[in-house]
Amino acid sequence: MSRSLKLLSLIMVVLLVGTLLAGCGSKDTAKEGDKAAPEKVTEIKIGSIHPLTGNLAYDGKMIRNALELAIDEVNTAGGIKSLGGAKLKLVDGDNQGSPEKAVSEVQRLIKEGAVVLTGTYTSSATFAATQEAEKQKTPFVITVSSAPNILERGFKYSFRIQPSATVFAQNFIEYMTKLVTPEIKTAAVAHEDTLFGTTFGDYVEKHIAETGLKMVVRVPYSNKSPSLTAEVNKIAAAKPDILIGSGYYTDQTLLVKTLKEQKVDVKAIIGIANGAFSDPKFIQDLGKDAEYVMDVNYRYNPKNPKALEVRDKFKQKYGVEMNSSSLYGYVTGMVIADALERAASTDKDKIREALAQTNMADHILPHKEVKFNEAGENINAAGVITQIQNGKHVVVFPEEYAEAKLIFPFPKIK
Fold first, then answer.
1. Residue 270: which residues within 8 A CB-CB, separation 6 or more?
2. Is residue 414 included in any domain, yes or no?
3. 218: alpha, beta or left, given left = phi > 0 and alpha = psi -120 to 50?
4. 377 in a domain, yes or no?
5. Is residue 25, in this structure, part of any structural domain at all?
6. Whose C-alpha in 45, 149, 291, 361 is 20 to 30 A from the C-alpha of 99?
7. In a 10 Å sphere around its CB, with 0-12 CB exposed, 13-18 middle and 19+ buried, how is residue 268 labelled?
């Protein structure tokens, strides 16, 4: 063999051995690196899509502010530690209560780098927004929206912490079955006419007989209506013992104001996931006319010291009492942070997987762990009955969370 051929053979052997050794070394190094080194990220964007302008802006801003409170707490505590202390950043989107606007905001926020989305307060807007998020394989944690069909489409990227409308309505029927007294026999149902209110109206109409009550009139209306005088006249004509209401803050407050102005005499007023009856602003706006009004709705656990601490922090930071909707803004922020910590990644599929495996016991809600089923519903979600007593909201049922005794039927207010 010539000298040149021998030299070439030697070079080839050296290269082959070096390649094999390098291959083995790089494989082990990659494994060690995957375990040891977190993603190099300093900021994680969370897209918040709520009505910040228009007739639903009050509610939307309350939810958004509660999200901000949760995010501030996480950042102050050191951020997402599994990602080297990366800070959360809330990026706002304004859906104005419109499904079309909600979709365009989903698209915009994803382009701007949001890896998780939240929203949207109205069920119709959330229905559209979650569909767009699913197309773009982006996790979406619903803050407030209760329509059951939102999560009945086999989506993998959407999750809901709050009770669905079906659960709320089931809670209402179950609770009223236990609470209805002999003098309470008939009911009127008044609800706003979008997906949200109609869902409750349909369920109550179908199941109210189970409580021993008879529905004497059902009155749907537009939540944008400047007057509900005609609707209240229909209620008055039916002479119900109790009024059941489902809607948003502005319209349901207007409903009760009109009811009181026209001196329509009912023995009780109770809401289902009512945007007004569980809101501290309702007490400020109606004064003594708000007294004794009830609601089957979200509420923090009044027997949990952490919940009371969050309530106080919110009032200190924003100057108003935390309402039922803002409660779920806060919890949503904490659930997202928990998922990001466990995912240790900004990869959307890894975040989705972490959300699906959520089992959070350290929360401020009146139920067991936050835990999602395959559809993305929180399997332990439930509402409680609140009642306005002496100018304050108190939990009155179920008994394990009650902080005061239920007053039902209502006494006459002098």
1. 172, 176, 242, 243, 244, 245, 277, 293, 294, 295, 296, 385
2. no
3. beta
4. yes
5. no
6. 45
7. buried
Q: Which residues contact 174 (CB under 8 A, 6 or more apart)?
A: none
Nearest to 293 by CA among 257, 250, 263, 322: 257
Which pairing describes strands 392-397 and 384-389: parallel, antiparallel, or unpaired? antiparallel
pLDDT reported for residue 413: 58
What's the pLDDT score for residue 196?
85
Query: Using CA atoms, how far apart are residues 22 and 39, in angstroms rounded to an integer?
Result: 25
Cα separation, 157 vs 347, in Å, equals 13
pLDDT in tens, 81-132: 999 999 999 999 999 999 999 999 999 999 999 999 999 999 999 999 999 9
Residue 19: pLDDT band with limits 50, 70, 90? very low
| Closest by Cα among 204, 145, 215 to 169 | 204
Cβ contact 374:159 at 8 Å:
no
Do 281 and 393 have their domain in common? yes
Nearest to residue 330, comparing CAs of 47, 147, 64?
64
Six token digits for residue 386: 């609140």
Alpha carbons 208 and 190: distance in angstroms, whole number:
14
Cα(348)–Cα(336) distance, integer angstroms: 12
* CATH number where 252 lies: 3.40.50.2300
Residue 32 has pLDDT above 70, yes or no: no
Helices (H) and strands (E) in the chain, counts: 12, 14
